[in-house]
């Protein structure tokens, strides 16, 4: 097939194939038979068809046969074109009308002996782009491709993908070499001037070149790619001359469930849609496909108006009477019977001879002879097989046959499944028996007889001294046997000769692994158990050893060793002095302690209770700090007067060499003093307002240890006692509000005692002068030290309920200003008396209720010993600082103010 004329440049394809107007009715009726120029065929290129390689649907295309640039007379040429709407052969050549888009193969053959058929392909398009390419090509050879572009499309770019992982290629008419012998899908992606992208593709079969089959590249499907519902469409496979004798069959699949099997077929579709059509070619008698060609048909709705009938033409008209011509028909196949129930496919081609004869005043070609020429004969398929007994086995069926009818073993061991494969029975020819009787293995084949065969034993009871059971004389059991279809059948079973004579047992005592119970859990005795046994080791009743004396064996034992196992545990506390000491100006100590658990385990060893292990396991050292700041605290748990404090100090000085804890305290804090009422005070100093108190960390939580109060007391104290702090007096509960100031630049405000201590408020409010307690002016007085408890303890508290509705909570010994300007203890007040508010106003006492308070109480020292600076404001009432419970105790119950009160101050 001349693909060289199909693969024109893109512009030429459009110009030649798509700019020609559709044929008019007149052209369709008369078939524009204008001659085609044959001059383009070079000399020496052989006979070729000249025509248009592309066209727009609805066009009529002219073809001519040319050789060496000259046209061959059309009357001497046989023309064929499958699938065209209409075609007319003339003296000038062939004119073919194409109403539907498609790929059409035009075939021409000169009417001379030995002339070969030549072909030419025209791609017809309507609105869709089509690819011009072969269906078959050879590996390692150039293959050319092209596109047929409708007149309505302007191409902007083309990208070719040859389906073999090579880079994309641009251009309108590329060539490509394929190396893999397989089906390649070639795609062309076309972008038009409106940026619309269209992808067209073609499957191409790449095969290896075989001598004598060079023309295989011309194999192609001829027919439309468009049709209408229920309109018969003709399709044909063009088979070039080099394959005419090699192709044995062509099978079609129309994509709608229908098939056909000839070179040229006709098919009508019943529904619109796009259908994939395939034509598969088989070589010779082979049942394996050689090549499958793909085609696609788009079926649309049939809305055509019937055309006016045209004047018929006579395609058989001829010119020279007596002239003869010969041509070969297309391939067709027949199924014929063969062999035993088999069939074979025989392919024929008719060779027809026609003669130009006068028929009713007209010369016409008339067939004078038709010879049926066989082109290919397939193998005989599906034959049945003849079995040894003369019956038939269908093709594909199987039958079990046997190499012998009476094997020594199973029939399966001599069986063989023989299958019928197209008249040939598979397997060994020796497997020719239709039936089989199972043998009995080493016994023999079917029908074998043996007599006196030993098949077992017969036991006869033997009589012994103690009437023992289970002792027998053994005799053989015999029978006569016959092999019947794989089973040995017994008959005449009977007792035979003696096999073994029974033996009566002999008895004696034998030791066991068992002993009597042990007499003690540890270090007892037990006796071995002896039993009577026969000569086979079986235990029997001891009466059968009655004429014998059983041996006696003893051994040392432990009846229950775990019962005597015990553990004794004890724990001790180890203490180590820490390398750390309390920071400067702190009182207390840092200790390290750990628990040591000692466990002794006693067990049964060598049959007596002995110490098995003695293990001491210490815990980790735990370091605990008992350091406190060296500040005065109120110690209600160890409250001393000055005489008692002096006695304790003298006792400590006396015992310091015997008690390192006391010596360390006296040494480290010898020069440490605090200010009380503006004076430097130390433990043991003049006045002795401060005294040490002790805690014992052996308790959790720790408890006070009350040290001696006289120098004559013995120098003994617990090892876990230490000096905890120094003590002074204090009286208010934590929630009582004191007028105080946190910072030097702050303002005086009421705050709870506990907050004033926690925040270490630097100033408190006191009276401005000692002239009159009726002054409403207060001043800021610098705090020397806030005082609280060392530990939480239970206190007696007096709750004052006032006529104003206010409340005040104090310890009984807390100093409070009276209505007549004196200072006395809270416990000395009675209901009906009055407390003095800031400014001198009196607030009568409604009730005084004693309660218990568990926790701490609080007070404060100021940096002044002046009386008026030690009169503070708590909950709005005038009361005394810690001064009045220490060196200011001398001012209790005496007039505090130098100037009499203004009359009426206390009047209400």
Automatic annotation (TrEMBL):
<feature type="domain" description="PKD">
    <location>
        <begin position="160"/>
        <end position="206"/>
    </location>
</feature>
<dbReference type="Pfam" id="PF18911">
    <property type="entry name" value="PKD_4"/>
</dbReference>
<feature type="compositionally biased region" description="Basic and acidic residues">
    <location>
        <begin position="558"/>
        <end position="568"/>
    </location>
</feature>
<dbReference type="GO" id="GO:0016539">
    <property type="term" value="P:intein-mediated protein splicing"/>
</dbReference>
<dbReference type="InterPro" id="IPR000601">
    <property type="entry name" value="PKD_dom"/>
</dbReference>
<dbReference type="InterPro" id="IPR022409">
    <property type="entry name" value="PKD/Chitinase_dom"/>
</dbReference>
<dbReference type="InterPro" id="IPR006141">
    <property type="entry name" value="Intein_N"/>
</dbReference>
<dbReference type="InterPro" id="IPR000884">
    <property type="entry name" value="TSP1_rpt"/>
</dbReference>
<dbReference type="InterPro" id="IPR036383">
    <property type="entry name" value="TSP1_rpt_sf"/>
</dbReference>
<dbReference type="InterPro" id="IPR035986">
    <property type="entry name" value="PKD_dom_sf"/>
</dbReference>
<feature type="domain" description="PKD">
    <location>
        <begin position="251"/>
        <end position="281"/>
    </location>
</feature>
<protein>
    <submittedName>
        <fullName>Cell surface protein</fullName>
    </submittedName>
</protein>
<dbReference type="Pfam" id="PF19030">
    <property type="entry name" value="TSP1_ADAMTS"/>
</dbReference>
<feature type="region of interest" description="Disordered">
    <location>
        <begin position="558"/>
        <end position="579"/>
    </location>
</feature>
<dbReference type="InterPro" id="IPR036844">
    <property type="entry name" value="Hint_dom_sf"/>
</dbReference>
<dbReference type="InterPro" id="IPR013783">
    <property type="entry name" value="Ig-like_fold"/>
</dbReference>
